[in-house]
Amino acid sequence: MKKECIGMLLAGGEGKRLGLLTKKLAKPAVHFGGKYRIIDFTLSNCTNSGINTIGVLTQYAPLELNKHIGIGKPWDLDRQFDGISILSPYTAQEGGNWYKGTADAIYKNIQFIEQYNPEHILVISGDHIYQMNYKILLNHHIKMDADATISVMEVPPPDAPRFGILNTDDNLRILDFEEKPQHPKSNLASMGIYIFNWKKLKSYLLQDANMNESSHDFGKDIIPAMLSDNLRLFAYRFNGYWKDVGTIQSYWEANMDLLDEDLSLSLNNKSWRTYSHDSNYSPQFINKDAKVNRSLINSGCWISGTVENSILFEDVTISSNSVVRQSILHPSVKVGPNVILERVIVTENTLIPENTLIRSNPEKDPLIVSSENLHSLLSISETN
Predict the structure, then answer these.
(1) Nearest to 366 by CA among 20, 3, 10
(2) pLDDT score recorded for residue 381
(3) The pLDDT value given to residue 384
(4) Using H for helix, E for strand and C for coil, what is the string for 115-159?
(5) What's the rounded mean pLDDT across residues 253-277?
(6) Among 11, 73, 219, 330, which one is most buried in terms of CB atoms within 10 A?
(7) Cα–Cα distance, 301 to 81 (Å, whole number)
(8) Average pLDDT of the chain?
(9) 243 by DSSP, 3-state: which?
(10) What would the pLDDT profile of 340-353 be if each residue is shown by its tens digit?
């Protein structure tokens, strides 16, 4: 079976900077946008782009992520001969260990890739929020006769040291690449979205695997090695919405962005749908005394209080005389009477007792509220 292009989705991230949100689950499995998990956006991009052979490389706390992906039905990837495959680290006769880096994760799954004999391979991450047509990226890669193509976008100069930074000529051929430089030469940042000629990439993966001093990473090792050998590496400029939700602040901001009617990332885009599981809860109920303004309210919610500029996942209850502002409430959160929540993120199944006040300092990261830390946060005002 020969495929023009298959996708390899890196979804093993621990996401330490997300604190309690990733204590028990992988970063791509974190709830997002009132209905979804972070990985849904990348998987939906694959489906909408016609990439129907995908290997999902998991590692850290994969149970919830594996349950969510299942056989790939929400993304039309429940297929007999291609579709979606979960690729966890494994042992063989010669031994085995965890994935040591992004490149090592692909190297350890060469056998999976080879069964499809692909011309090209798409390497993507499962922890970014964006909508992209990978088919356009692939066509650009083929048109430029590239050995590798990296999707890029301009970022604010102060943020540049957080990314892999590229310098290109006028034809977008990559001249040099620096992974998270202290003094970046430009603000053209890698989005961590790559297309490679598979035969070329395979030779570099095999070479890199035998280098003890390598960190086995695309940005730190593979890309610089290809540039050193003068291979044809090109950049592809992306002009849409893209967010790396790697911190609590960026996660909160990306959710709040969804409340902007002018945002290019639209969850109501019927020509580029974002797919996920349907919980089949009953329709939400808005009580006669409730007030809801500029918010996303999912199925099964029961609103008797005030909700402003917030995102409520399924089966959330807001009791009478309670106010929720600029907050994100994960599934099955129950808010008792006379509660005030402002600029907080409440994790799944948390019960907020009556007469509680939890408000984040706007100069600091939003507070994460869970069953584990709720007691220490009760009746705290202007905390964090």
Answers:
(1) 20
(2) 44
(3) 41
(4) CCCCCEEEEEECCEEECCCHHHHHHHHHHCCCCEEEEEEECCHHH
(5) 88
(6) 11
(7) 40
(8) 92
(9) strand
(10) 999 999 999 999 99
